[in-house]
Amino acid sequence: MIEDRVYLYLTGIERVNKMNNNNNVNVSKIKKMVKSKGFVTAICAIGVVLVLVIGYNLRIKEATQPVKVPVAARRLSPRHLITEEDIKYVDVPSGALSGDYFSRKESVLNAYVNYDTTIQEGSLFYRGAVVSKSELPDEALYNLEDGE
Fold first, then answer.
1. Is residue 129 within 8 Å of 114, Cβ to Cβ?
2. Section 127-147 average pLDDT
3. Are the C-beta atoms of 106 and 130 separated by less than 8 Å?
């Protein structure tokens, strides 16, 4: 009975040793493969492709993200006082926005269209096209009373 247990114990050790030898062979093959130039090149290429795909997707998402901006609700002539009725909001892809424009309604409300500018319906309010009353060249005329 003890002999049977010893036999089972020894055969179990032999099986474990055989498994370890097979694993050592597999581990050495893996080490060789990892050290090869082709494997390293393939891993680097996969990494570069992943970085490019992720970066591209992030840039596209960023450029197409809609932004709410104020635009002219109707055609505004020179020296026109901009009121609530003259402003509406639209969604525009952030990649389509450029230049020095106003992004808030409060910035253009109660301002004037510059004397040499007409703002078309649906157009953004750009800084050169929208000025304060004091920036108009004929600002003194606005302070005259009727009949003066």
1. yes
2. 74
3. no
pLDDT of residue 18: 53
Smallest Cα–Cα separation from 96: which of 65, 59, 130? 65
Q: How many residues does the chain have?
A: 148
Contacts of 73 (CB under 8 A, 6+ apart): 85, 86, 87, 88, 121
DSSP assignment string, 106-118: HHHTT-EE-TT--
First and final C-alpha spacing in the chain: 129
**pLDDT, tens digit, for every residue of 23-65?**
555 667 777 776 778 888 888 899 999 999 999 998 888 877 8
| The two three-digit tokens of residue 72, written as one number | 């002219």
Residue (of 95, 26, 112, 11) closest to 60 by Cα position = 95
Q: Quote the pTM value.
A: 0.56
Q: Across 4-107, where does the E strand assignment appear? A: 66-72, 87-93
